[in-house]
C-alpha cells in the first residue's frame, strides 16, 4: 500500500506532515482491508484547483479537496484506487477560519478524500453521518480532534 504525493510548483509539505499523511492512509487501509493499493495525491494551489473544479464539476470556484476514483479496469491489476487533489491555499485559509492546525486539517481532507474514493458520500444525511463517523474514528487514532464540532 502506498500514498504517492506530488506538489504543484513551490508547495512543499513538511516531512512530519508527509509522515502523518502516510500514517492516515495506512490506518484507513488496515480498517478497510485494502491490500496492495495506492492513491495519488496532488497538492495544488487555488488556480489549479479552480481549473480542476471547472473541468470536472463545472464549478468556477475553488474548493478544499477533490477526489477522482479510478474506475478503469486497470485498478484491479495495479491497485491504483484513484487521485486526490488537495488545495494548499484553501486549507491554509480554512484552517485559520476554523481554528484548526494546518496539518490536522490537511490530514482530515486526505481522509475525507479517501473515503470518497472508497464510495462514501455526504449527499444524504444518513450517508454523511456514516462517513463522518469513519473519518472521526481514523482521526482519533492520529490524535486529531473531531473536525465536525
Q: What topology does this entry show?
A:
Layout: E1 2-7, H1 15-32, E2 38-44, H2 46-57, E3 65-69, H3 75-78, E4 80-87, H4 88-97, H5 102-117, H6 125-141
Parallel strand pairs: 1-2, 2-4
Antiparallel strand pairs: 3-4
Strand share of the residues? 15-25%
Tell me roughly what share of residues is in helical segments.
40-55%
How do the strands of the widest beta sheet line up side by side?
Answer: 1-2-4-3
Largest sheet: 4 strands, mixed
Question: How many distinct domains?
Answer: 1
Encode the helix/strand succession as letters.
EHEHEHEHHH
The rough form would be described as: globular
What distance separates the N and C termini?
A: 31 Å
Radius of gyration over alpha carbons?
A: 15 Å
In short:
With 149 residues, this protein is of the alpha/beta class. 52% of the residues lie in helices and 17% in strands.
Structural account:
- This protein is 52% helix and 17% strand.
- The protein is of the alpha/beta class and 149 residues long.
- It has a single domain (2-141), classed as Metalloproteases ("zincins"), catalytic domain (Collagenase (Catalytic Domain)).
- The model has no long low-confidence stretch (mean pLDDT 92).
List keywords for this structure.
149 residues; alpha/beta; Collagenase (Catalytic Domain); four-stranded mixed sheet; 52% helix
Amino acid at each position: 500500500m502506498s500514498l504517492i504525493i506530488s506538489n504543484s510548483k513551490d508547495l512543499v509539505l513538511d516531512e512530519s506532515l508527509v509522515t502523518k499523511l502516510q500514517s492516515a492512509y495506512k490506518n484507513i487501509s488496515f480498517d478497510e482491508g485494502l491490500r496492495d493499493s495506492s492513491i495519488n495525491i496532488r497538492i495544488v494551489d487555488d488556480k489549479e484547483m479552480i481549473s480542476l473544479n471547472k473541468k470536472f464539476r463545472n464549478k468556477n470556484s475553488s474548493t478544499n479537496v477533490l477526489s477522482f476514483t479510478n474506475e478503469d479496469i486497470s485498478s484491479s491489476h495495479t491497485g491504483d484506487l484513484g487521485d486526490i487533489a488537495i488545495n494548499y491555499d484553501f486549507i491554509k485559509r480554512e484552517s485559520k477560519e476554523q481554528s484548526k492546525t494546518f496539518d490536522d486539517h490537511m490530514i482530515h481532507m486526505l481522509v475525507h478524500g479517501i473515503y470518497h474514493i472508497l464510495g462514501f458520500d455526504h449527499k444524504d444525511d444518513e450517508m454523511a453521518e456514516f462517513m463522518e463517523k469513519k473519518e472521526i474514528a481514523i482521526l482519533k487514532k492520529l490524535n486529531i480532534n473531531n473536525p465536525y464540532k
